[in-house]
Amino acid sequence: MSVETPGIEALTSGDLRVEVAAGSEGSAITLTFLGKSNAQQPEEALWPYLGRAVEAAAARSWGLEVHFERLEYFNSSTIKVMIKFLEHARKWKVPLAL
To answer: Which one, of 50, 39, 38, lies nearest residue 11 by Cα?
Structure first.
């Protein structure tokens, strides 16, 4: 069960679910990817969500912990979104732990 973090909630899009929780000692937002990211255009749901996560972490001077251990599959379109996410976090100076 995830604890909702102010500014961002869990995401369900097709076969993909991203759970969100306050990370260790309230210093990070933890995103846990579950299921499959197999949408032909995952950026439609995933990019706005990840962008908000970066901005929510930045507003609190927190980092982001991202867990993919329970993600069963992701396609090449998802990789493009993840690269954009990494660049956005760097721009906002949000520490990432993947």
So the answer is: 50
pTM equals 0.88
Structure tokens at 90: 């760097």
Q: pLDDT tens digits for the chain (98 residues)?
A: 444 455 789 999 999 999 999 866 678 999 999 999 999 999 999 999 999 999 999 999 999 999 999 999 999 999 999 999 999 999 999 999 99
CB atoms within 10 A of CB 36: 16
Q: Residue 48: which of 15, 14, 75, 9 has the closest Cα?
A: 9
Q: Which amino acid is at 49?
A: Y
